[in-house]
Amino acid sequence: MDNEKTTLFEFDDLESEEIRVKLKEIYDALEERGYNPVNQIVGYLISGDLGYISSHKDARKKMQSMDRARIVEVLLKDFERRSK
Fold first, then answer.
1. What is the tens place of the pLDDT at every residue in 54-65?
2. Can you give 55-83 as a three-state secondary structure string?
3. Percentage helix, strand, coil, to 5, in the chain?
4. DSSP secondary-structure letter at 6?
5. How far apart are CA 37 and CA 3, in angstroms?
6. Residue 1 pLDDT > 60
């Protein structure tokens, strides 16, 4: 390790990863219950109605703990990164 360089820690990256992990857990819980996870999550993101998200495995609580705009931001940044 080079002691001359400063390592940058970005809180934004940590928060983004937390959102990704929660979304994966929510996705898996919805799929396990027989729902189409993409449709359910999109329905919630558009409407804000948590009724789209099952309470199975605390998926609804996890979704409620995240800001919808922040979720969309993380998804779009991931899309941008993967499409380059």
1. 999 999 999 999
2. CHHHHHHHHHCCCHHHHHHHHHHHHHHHC
3. 70, 0, 30
4. P
5. 46
6. no
**Is the whole model's pTM more than 0.90, yes or no?**
no
What is the distance between the alpha carbons of residues 67 and 84, in angstroms, rounded to a whole number? Answer: 27
Backbone φ/ψ region at 8: left (φ over 0), alpha (ψ -120 to 50), beta: beta
Identify the residue whose tokens are 């495995």.
Answer: 57
pLDDT tens digit sequence for 40-49: 999 999 999 9
Q: Which amino acid appears at position 54 of this protein?
A: S
Other C-beta atoms lying within 10 Å of the C-beta of residue 58: 15
User: For residue 59, how many C-alpha atoms fall within 13 Å in the half-sphere facing its CB?
Assistant: 24
